[in-house]
Amino acid sequence: MLELAIGFFILALVAGVLGAGGVAGLSMDIAKWLVVAFVVLAILSLVWPG
Questions:
Q1: φ and ψ at residue 13, rounded to 5 degrees
Q2: Which family is it part of (predicted)?
Q3: Residue 7 pLDDT level (bands cut at 50, 70, 90)
Q4: Contacts of 10 (CB under 8 A, 6+ apart)
Q5: How far is CA 38 from CA 16, 17, 18, 44, in A?
Q6: In the predicted model, is pLDDT for residue 47 greater than 90?
């Protein structure tokens, strides 16, 4: 999941440099939510017994 977030972040950077603001904004939003989901799942896996 972290790889997807990094991929969308790179896509947002490239789209921003090329002037595609809509694609860059959407990619950044997706990357942000994937990072949040990754952090939540990582914390749950560390806290959850078993």
A1: -65, -45
A2: Belongs to the UPF0391 family.
A3: confident
A4: none
A5: 24, 27, 28, 10
A6: yes
Give the tens place of pLDDT for each residue, 13-37: 888 888 887 888 888 888 889 889 9
Nearest 10 degrees: Cα torsion 22, 24, 26, 31? 180
Decide if pLDDT at 12 tops 80.
Answer: yes
Structure tokens at 26: 């959407």
- DSSP H or E segment with residue 46: helix 21-47
**Structure tokens given for 46:** 């560390």
Residues composing the chain? 50
12 contacts 24 by C-beta, under 8 angstroms: yes
